[in-house]
Amino acid sequence: MSVRRLAKEQPASFAFSAESQAKADWWKAKYPAARKQSAVIPMLWLAQKQEGWVQEPAIQEIARQLEMPVIRVLEVATFYVMFQLAPVGKTAFVQLCGTTPCQLRGALDLRSVLEKKIGPAHSVSADGKFSWEEVECLGACCNAPMAAINDYYYEDLTPESLAQILDDFAAGKAPQPGSYEGRKSSEPKDKIQTLTDPKLYDGSAAKKIKIPNLPEKPKKTKAEPAA
Amino acid sequence: MAIAKVNGVEVEFEPGMTVLQVAELAGEEIPRFCYHERLSIAGNCRMCLVEVKPGPPKPQASCALPAAEGQEIFTKTPMVKKAREGVMEFLLINHPLDCPICDQGGECDLQDQAVGYGRDDSRYDENKRAVEEKAMGPLIKTVMTRCIQCTRCVRFITEVAGSPEIGLISRGEDVEITTYLGAAVTSELSANVIDLCPVGALTSKPYAFEARPWELKKTESIDVMDALGSSIRVDGRANAVLRVLPRINEEVNEEWISDKTRYAVDGLQRQRLDRPYVRVDGKLKPATWAEAFAAVSAKIKATAPERIGVIAGDLQDAESLKATKDLFTALGVKNLDARQDGAALGQGPRESWLFNSTIAGIEDADVVLFVGSNPRLEAPVLNARFRKQWLAGKTRFGVIGEQVDLTFGYDYLGAGAKTLSGLAKAKNDFVAAFEAAERPAIIIGQGALARADGAAVLKAAAGLAKTFNVVREGWNGWNVLHTAAARVAGLDLGFVPAEGGLSTGDMLKPGALDVLFLLGADECESAASDAFKIYLGTHGDAGAHKADVILPGAAYTEKNGLYVNTEGRVQMGKRAVFPKGEAKEDWSILRALSETLGHKLPYDSLDQLRAKLFADHPTFGQIDFAPGSVPTVFDLAAVGGEGEATDAPFESPVKAFHLTNPIARASVTMAECAANVSAASKIAAE
């Protein structure tokens, strides 16, 4: 993680589209009126969804809508690394996991693919379509190495499959997310040897258990009138 | 009262206190950086670690841990010592070793506590992180590499000052204190973050590289920039005032001062009148004291008393007011006025022009009505108290006057006298609350009084106070918020026109007078008068420009003097440096002048003058006593005068906060601040 700053070049203005504004209003309505600042993270997220990254005028707009000091919105936007403070690739924004399990399984090779095909990290390719960054663990270690591209996880990658995915994106296709090794979610990679007993899944192995320290069930009495 | 043990000694404490406070009760010093008595608890510096029993077998942050009955607190065990050393070592990982070039050196919490509680060396030899400097405006200099992220500045500006402009961005080891994209901090209390900063990250920009604290002569004095009379410490070296710091005074300013109080002092070095001047052939020429006195006395002796007028300024000490009044009364002059703005005060009981609830006592009020006052600009430190009450949800506020951001929420009732007089019959939520209040207060500002119909407005306000029973047994909620440090002293002295005398406005009319004596009066249109003008003051400001004789006086840091603040508290200011050049203390100039006029004043020293002052006006003898601290009931019917109030909206007399007096107007720092504020308001208006 490095020092997070707003991008130097910023658009002159920002406005929520009708669709995102409707979603923003839903979030604002979710919290009590006096606590509507709670919607700051969802709203930053909506602004990022709309524009691809969090723009400075968007921070101002969110502060205005939530009636909170603009510095507070900036604090939130710079705290969470999921908020992109500079433009990202329009077609595909690759977040490559570089944490230990993925690295052991070949994330470094994936990185050189990205460097070759897109360029250095944190910089948008010349056509504006691609950019990539290395991120910390995305929690899909069973399917290492992996990368998140836009909204989806692409797992069990090899340099070849990643290159193919990028080419597909470039060609305007939408590559299938998930494992690129033909696995179903994160089930064992080779022959399945454990948890094979079908009884495990039909409920017959279950025993009735008594959970300790449960509060005593109140004896059934006449229902009290609502206060 | 609960009991806990601190290092084996039993201590009684109020339930709700933290372990840190209990340890302090027992006389133990707990090192801390982020904890501050007047701010919310953050608990992020970890310097205040102690050991508690019963509790987990690890050090606990005492600032954020509530003390419990029967708790044993240890502050001197090996575990605590090791914990403190560890925290200090962590804090110093990224803190630069630039103490020799740091302005905080010598008064730095980190420096002191590193010596007191740290290891002798560090085990970290990695590179230190560096952080870019941040722009925070003309007052706050930043060296952010020194920051230890205690967030005191963020909490102060958000909680106390009420203009959340400073924040902590990013996270982890990358966090940085900053304003939004380098905007200047606009709060009137902003520079207090410099005092709060425990390291040299936020230091004073105008004072940068000026002096080390041990070189300075420290004088405890009283501020004159507003009518609060904040307690200050004036730090001077040789014959220059280098800086002003707040002193803790719970009764007045807690431990804050406004930016103007702190930074207008560079104006004491500029535009000064350091020798007498006499106008010869339309031009002011330097003169000797004897020549100046000769010119003055020749003119005064040749003029009938009713053609002589005296106007006193806003920064005057009580002694110079007394000497002036004694001298000119002896000459038979009736045209005396200490109210440059023409405020309709000074008649009736003393309570009618005081802030009777007292500054500390206003915190007990449950509903407060502002009439023609903008406390944020007129008394920023007092405004912080209102905000504190509002944040605690203890006080409800209503405003008649300008609708501006006061940093706290209020019910806006209306703009002018019509709202004021109609309020008793108005049916709204605020009026109902005001009626039901146990301790209602009215705060009437100079915006409502310093106008042609001021007396009528005052009467309407007094009528309202009577209707709502604002002055009652055990509670006096009638408050006048002054803007001038000298005003209450002037009114207490009776420095107002005698029977048949002219007030400021009438004196300034062309042809009204032949001789006009201006005692540091710079806020009135003295240029309009065609009289022979004698100016006794400190700065080449409005009053001196058109003067015919200039007598150079002493500024508030250059004389011992008494000041009476808006609540009627008499406070003693001390001399920190000597008057500039040939200038003299004001009272001694008047004493010398009285001799040439043949009406020698009956005192030869300041002590004798004070003795006379105390004898003639006993209230001045009660130093540091706020009369309102013993609530007195007085007759509101005697307050105010006849006349019809117009419906012109009330406007605060303080338009440009940073430029309200000759010292501030001569200050470069204040000029920068004022330019900053006007630029910010222009952007806001767009």
Automatic annotation (TrEMBL), chain A:
<dbReference type="GO" id="GO:0022890">
    <property type="term" value="F:inorganic cation transmembrane transporter activity"/>
</dbReference>
<protein>
    <submittedName>
        <fullName>NADH-quinone oxidoreductase subunit NuoE</fullName>
    </submittedName>
</protein>
<dbReference type="GO" id="GO:0046872">
    <property type="term" value="F:metal ion binding"/>
</dbReference>
<dbReference type="GO" id="GO:0051537">
    <property type="term" value="F:2 iron, 2 sulfur cluster binding"/>
</dbReference>
<dbReference type="InterPro" id="IPR036249">
    <property type="entry name" value="Thioredoxin-like_sf"/>
</dbReference>
<dbReference type="GO" id="GO:0098796">
    <property type="term" value="C:membrane protein complex"/>
</dbReference>
<feature type="region of interest" description="Disordered">
    <location>
        <begin position="174"/>
        <end position="227"/>
    </location>
</feature>
<comment type="similarity">
    <text>Belongs to the complex I 24 kDa subunit family.</text>
</comment>
<dbReference type="GO" id="GO:1902494">
    <property type="term" value="C:catalytic complex"/>
</dbReference>
<feature type="binding site">
    <location>
        <position position="141"/>
    </location>
    <ligand>
        <name>[2Fe-2S] cluster</name>
    </ligand>
</feature>
<keyword id="KW-0411">Iron-sulfur</keyword>
<dbReference type="GO" id="GO:0031090">
    <property type="term" value="C:organelle membrane"/>
</dbReference>
<dbReference type="GO" id="GO:0003954">
    <property type="term" value="F:NADH dehydrogenase activity"/>
</dbReference>
<feature type="compositionally biased region" description="Basic and acidic residues">
    <location>
        <begin position="181"/>
        <end position="192"/>
    </location>
</feature>
<keyword id="KW-0479">Metal-binding</keyword>
<feature type="compositionally biased region" description="Basic and acidic residues">
    <location>
        <begin position="216"/>
        <end position="227"/>
    </location>
</feature>
<keyword id="KW-0001">2Fe-2S</keyword>
<keyword id="KW-0408">Iron</keyword>
<dbReference type="GO" id="GO:0022804">
    <property type="term" value="F:active transmembrane transporter activity"/>
</dbReference>
<keyword id="KW-0520">NAD</keyword>
<dbReference type="GO" id="GO:0008324">
    <property type="term" value="F:monoatomic cation transmembrane transporter activity"/>
</dbReference>
<dbReference type="Pfam" id="PF01257">
    <property type="entry name" value="2Fe-2S_thioredx"/>
</dbReference>
UniProtKB/TrEMBL annotation, chain B:
<dbReference type="GO" id="GO:0008137">
    <property type="term" value="F:NADH dehydrogenase (ubiquinone) activity"/>
</dbReference>
<dbReference type="InterPro" id="IPR000283">
    <property type="entry name" value="NADH_UbQ_OxRdtase_75kDa_su_CS"/>
</dbReference>
<dbReference type="Pfam" id="PF22151">
    <property type="entry name" value="Fer4_NDSU1"/>
</dbReference>
<dbReference type="Pfam" id="PF09326">
    <property type="entry name" value="NADH_dhqG_C"/>
</dbReference>
<dbReference type="GO" id="GO:0051537">
    <property type="term" value="F:2 iron, 2 sulfur cluster binding"/>
</dbReference>
<dbReference type="InterPro" id="IPR054351">
    <property type="entry name" value="NADH_UbQ_OxRdtase_ferredoxin"/>
</dbReference>
<keyword id="KW-0004">4Fe-4S</keyword>
<protein>
    <recommendedName>
        <fullName>NADH-quinone oxidoreductase</fullName>
        <ecNumber>7.1.1.-</ecNumber>
    </recommendedName>
</protein>
<dbReference type="GO" id="GO:0051539">
    <property type="term" value="F:4 iron, 4 sulfur cluster binding"/>
</dbReference>
<keyword id="KW-0001">2Fe-2S</keyword>
<keyword id="KW-1278">Translocase</keyword>
<dbReference type="InterPro" id="IPR010228">
    <property type="entry name" value="NADH_UbQ_OxRdtase_Gsu"/>
</dbReference>
<dbReference type="Pfam" id="PF22117">
    <property type="entry name" value="Fer4_Nqo3"/>
</dbReference>
<comment type="similarity">
    <text>Belongs to the complex I 75 kDa subunit family.</text>
</comment>
<feature type="domain" description="2Fe-2S ferredoxin-type">
    <location>
        <begin position="1"/>
        <end position="79"/>
    </location>
</feature>
<dbReference type="GO" id="GO:0046872">
    <property type="term" value="F:metal ion binding"/>
</dbReference>
<keyword id="KW-0520">NAD</keyword>
<dbReference type="InterPro" id="IPR036010">
    <property type="entry name" value="2Fe-2S_ferredoxin-like_sf"/>
</dbReference>
<keyword id="KW-0411">Iron-sulfur</keyword>
<dbReference type="InterPro" id="IPR050123">
    <property type="entry name" value="Prok_molybdopt-oxidoreductase"/>
</dbReference>
<dbReference type="InterPro" id="IPR006656">
    <property type="entry name" value="Mopterin_OxRdtase"/>
</dbReference>
<dbReference type="InterPro" id="IPR015405">
    <property type="entry name" value="NDUFS1-like_C"/>
</dbReference>
